[in-house]
Design brief:
about 400 residues; Dimethylsulfoxide Reductase, domain 2; 5-stranded parallel beta sheet; 14 helices; binds iron/sulfur cluster
Length: about 400
């Protein structure tokens, strides 16, 4: 069977034009996809993973009942992860945290990405990738390599990486700490160490505001940043994509916002995140419209309380303020999962279930169910768990 217009769940570009051939509940062929997606789809094995209790295989019902018994005795449960799962599961996770009076926090693929206490994406005015493609004449990637992490993003935005000859396309600028595949095709590449991102942004803001900034930067950086400021000032509509490497501190993040505000006094500029976690943005959106806050929420008082200094995973674990951790949608959280007493496998997101995932421009997409699931979805597990706990 050939399925068309499949949404790809392997990065948050969420390309929706893939053609997938399925036979005997196996994916045989993938077309209209990048190599990363082809590899991801074709490596989707059909092995059914068993539920485990203390590393011993048990039935799903048994594991669920054991888990509900354990969780019902916890007074300070933390539910975390959620960045690699769908929005249906994120909603169920919030309901579970609320019913148990616990805490809930999102953890992106690169946890340091969220170590500052500002999470603006659900509150920002934004633009769609379609708008960027049709309107932008200037693209700046700061601290990210989209050709590797989001292989079809540049073609989606009207830049063909294979064409050597400069055709009519948006000006492409990359600022990063190392040369990357994207920097190799950029019109301007500024190689600058991560520690210098902050002074570089400060210098750039001063240049854009036509003020003098002596700063501590080397002259070669100043020259290139001056050229970048000129390019930005000459743009009609520009977009700054902020990679995870450039989003590691509150100060740096606020510099990006100030630069963005400053640019919008006289030019049209937008800010978009270049995040590797598939549905971190979806998690922030769901948390915001369900609790009023984007992450680090606690329900122990019976209503949602936001505590970016108190209820983030790192704070709660460091201060030993939790007596149980339930992680899901975060394969990278191995530092907690290694010692898991209970393990419940679920479906492969976007392949075995119809899921809602948010693209990097905050547009929700529905993925297709290509294969019959070998396990329940994460939303089903969480819902069953909540019902089971209510009986305890
Ligand atoms: S760019 Fe991303 S979403 Fe598009 S096909 Fe490749 S992996 Fe999938």
């Amino acid at each position: 069977m050939i399925i068309e217009k499949v949404v790809c769940p392997f990065c948050n570009c969420l390309c929706d034009t893939l053609v997938v051939e399925v036979e005997d509940n196996k994916i045989r062929k993938v077309e209209e996809a990048c190599p990363k997606a082809v590899k991801g789809f074709l490596n989707t094995g059909r092995k059914k993973i068993r539920s485990l209790v203390n590393s011993y295989p048990v039935s799903f019902t048994e594991a669920l009942s054991r888990l509900s018994q354990v969780l019902s005795t916890r007074k300070q449960l933390l539910i975390c992860g959620l960045a690699e799962t769908d929005s249906e599961a994120q909603m169920e996770a919030i309901k579970l945290a609320q019913s148990l009076g616990g805490s809930i926090d999102l953890v992106p693929f690169a946890p340091e990405f969220k170590k500052f206490h500002l999470s603006p994406w659900p509150l920002l005015p934004t633009c769609t990738l379609g708008e960027v493609k049709h309107k932008a004449d200037f693209l700046l990637f700061w601290g990210g390599d989209p050709l590797t992490s989001h292989p079809r993003l540049l073609p989606l935005l009207g830049i063909n990486p294979a064409k050597q000859k400069r055709e009519k396309r948006p000006t492409l600028v990359v600022v990063d700490s190392i040369p990357t595949a994207t920097s190799a095709i950029a019109d301007l590449f500024i190689e600058i160490q991560e520690e210098a991102f902050f002074p570089a942004l400060t210098f750039l803001r001063a240049e854009l505001g036509e003020k003098k900034n002596s700063g501590s930067l080397k002259d070669e950086y100043k020259l290139k940043l001056g050229k970048l400021a000129q390019m930005m000032a000459g743009a009609r509509y520009g977009v700054i994509f902020v990679g995870e490497a450039a989003w590691k501190s509150y100060c740096l993040a606020s510099q990006f916002f100030k630069a963005w505000q400053q640019l919008n006094f006289r030019l049209g500029f937008q800010l978009l995140p270049l995040i590797e976690s598939l549905n971190y943005l979806g998690g922030e959106m769901v948390m915001t419209w369900q609790t009023g806050y984007p992450y680090a929420v606690n329900f122990s008082a019976g209503y949602p309380r936001f505590g970016p200094q108190e209820y983030t995973v790192d704070r709660l674990v460091k201060n030993q303020e939790v007596d149980g951790i339930l992680t899901f949608g975060a394969d990278h959280l191995t530092f907690y999962a290694e010692d898991a007493e209970l393990f419940l496998p679920s479906v492969r997101l976007g392949i075995e279930t119809e899921s809602t995932i948010y693209r990097m421009d905050q547009i929700p997409f529905s993925t297709s169910k290509l294969l019959s699931p070998g396990n329940p979805t994460q939303a089903q597990i969480l819902q069953a768990l909540r019902e089971e706990i209510s009986k305890c």
